[in-house]
Design brief:
Blueprint lengths: L1 H20 L3 H17 L4 H32 L12 E6 L7 E4 L2 E7 L11 E8 L2 E6 L8
Parallel strand pairs: 3-5
Antiparallel strand pairs: 1-2, 1-4, 2-3, 4-5
Helix pairs in contact: 1-2, 2-3
Length: about 150
């Protein structure tokens, strides 16, 4: 019964390290340790427990981990965050937007807004969208209908 607690303790340590590293390597070792702990609880000898831990960990590291890492990385890289998520989004113009002044609301937040030189001013209530971000200013483009997220 002591071997079960040793394997479960090893699994717990691996999970703590995994939480800090998020590389899924130590998670696979933890799964192997839990499998060895189950084998220990069922009465397997020490050599078989170590063999089970090694095989399960290796299968996880070489077969499961690469697929899981690709899945996690593809989800993270495809999601726009911070100001990148604002590009192309519709806004509600609240004060006329010119090359030097204006405000707009996007996702409930009021931003200073501007237009590109040479564009016509955007009056309040006219549909517009975020063309780009320049520092703390939304650079707007007229002509896109606002949605409910403003």
């Amino acid at each position: 019964m002591a071997a079960l607690w040793i394997w479960l303790g090893l699994a717990a340590v691996c999970i703590v390290i995994e939480v800090l590293s998020v590389q899924l390597f130590f998670l696979m070792v933890a799964v192997g340790a839990v499998a060895a702990g189950i084998a220990a609880a069922l009465g397997a000898d020490t050599v078989l427990q170590i063999l089970i831990a090694a095989v399960i960990s290796a299968l996880g590291i070489f077969l499961v981990r690469p697929v899981a890492m690709r899945h996690l990385q593809s989800k993270n890289s495809a999601t726009a965050t911070n100001v990148d998520a604002l590009l192309g989004q519709p806004v509600r113009v609240t004060a006329q937007v010119t090359e030097t002044t204006g405000t707009a609301v996007i996702s409930g937040e009021t931003w200073s807004a501007r237009i590109e030189p040479g564009q016509s001013p955007i009056p309040p209530g006219m549909p517009a969208q975020v063309q780009r971000i320049d520092g703390a200013y939304l650079i707007l483009q007229a002509g896109v209908a606002p949605t409910d997220n403003q």
